[in-house]
Amino acid sequence: MPADPAALRLALAEEVAAANPTLDSGWRDAVAVVPRELFLGAAAFRPTGAGWEPVRRAEVGEDEWLRMVYSDRTWVTQVEGEDAAEATGAVSGSPTSSATLPSLVVRTAQVAELRPGQRVLEVGTGTGYSTAILCHRLGAGNVVSIEYDADLAARAAVHLSEAGCAPTLAVGDGLQGCRKHADYDAIIATCSVRSIPHSWFWQLNDGGSITTTVSGWMLAAGMIRLVLDDEGTAHGRFTGDTITYMLARPHERPPSPSFFRLDGDSRSTRLDPGLLEEWAGRFVAQLAAPSAELMTTGSGIILRDVATGSQAWTEPDGDGWTVHQHGPLHLWDQVEQALLLWRDAGAPDLTKFGMTATPFEQTVWIGSPEGPGWQLPV
Ligand SMILES: C[S@@+](CC[C@H](N)C(=O)[O-])C[C@H]1O[C@@H](n2cnc3c(N)ncnc32)[C@H](O)[C@@H]1O
């Protein structure tokens, strides 16, 4: 029997709702009606392990394509600026756009506590799928969406119009917000940020909210909803979600030179470097060394500071691990001290972390604003 898009859409909506029992039925209904196949266009990338290969609708056939489209998974649509529809073969590099998995689209809206009638700025239109979901629930007249990449934005505009949605669309850097259409009751980002951009504070109504994933160059991330008080300070607590979005383009790591281990001060570590492979441990490490990137080697970890070139690398030494630190920053000392504070606080998951933020100072803390805390790079 040929695949029926309406039936597949409904099944996807039921699957998403079953996995998230507290989801408002309005979001389930939006998944049940928004035609995701329209937004995915003619091709997407599939991971190969070493890179990405294009999968074309015309080649896989309509049934297989619809089953792909209506699975609850992210489909990468652009890698290093190259669109799947234009790729002539496999490509390598990092995704620069995707159709986010539907469960995360509605989870973000759920965390944002969006209600019909609220005026929302979405940062990262991408394919336009999440924009269509927002339009369905909030009314297109209340949705503004901004995309960095002009070609993607143009394609999303066509697909949204075909789907019968007419939100306000803009092209540009959403880290500057979208001033022309401010003020907003809520800003939600479908890309992650290293810290909350200044403009988002200025473009929100009092009591407005910001929902985003806070991430960084170790690719650790936490989802949070921050609410702005009438003095201009935003407060919030992280959720426990262990999923994230790609970094906003202006917050991406600069390209890295080749890495060579350099000798330096050596000592035994007090903690297992494997803690950095855990979600919360890595998040704490990133807070402690926000301009460092992390590589794992199988037998240890490497930290390299993008700004200063400082490095720290660990190796097993029989009983434990030895760390070698080179350069002006002692990266492992920073990370280890933070991990010890986290451990003393009971090694909590991200639901025990919160954030207090102004445009000028942003602190992520454990427990309460008086607890151990780290400043984000603003
Ligand atoms: C995960 S994709 C978005 C998924 C999209 N919401 C969907 O459902 O198809 C992230 C998008 O954010 C865009 N982006 C990255 N940085 C941005 C920025 N500073 N301003 C606006 N868009 C940005 C990327 O180009 C990409 O299309």
Automatic annotation (TrEMBL):
Organism from which the protein derives: Streptomyces himastatinicus ATCC 53653
EC assignment: 2.1.1.77
Similarity comment: Belongs to the methyltransferase superfamily. L-isoaspartyl/D-aspartyl protein methyltransferase family.
Classification via Pfam families: PCMT
Subcellular location: Cytoplasm
Enzyme class: transferase
Keyword field: Cytoplasm, Methyltransferase, S-adenosyl-L-methionine, Transferase
GO cellular component: cytoplasm
Entry's Gene Ontology BP terms: methylation
Top-level taxonomic group: Bacteria
A GO MF term: protein-L-isoaspartate (D-aspartate) O-methyltransferase activity
Name this protein carries in UniProt: Protein-L-isoaspartate O-methyltransferase
Family annotation (InterPro entries): Methyltr_grasp, PCMT, SAM-dependent_MTases_sf
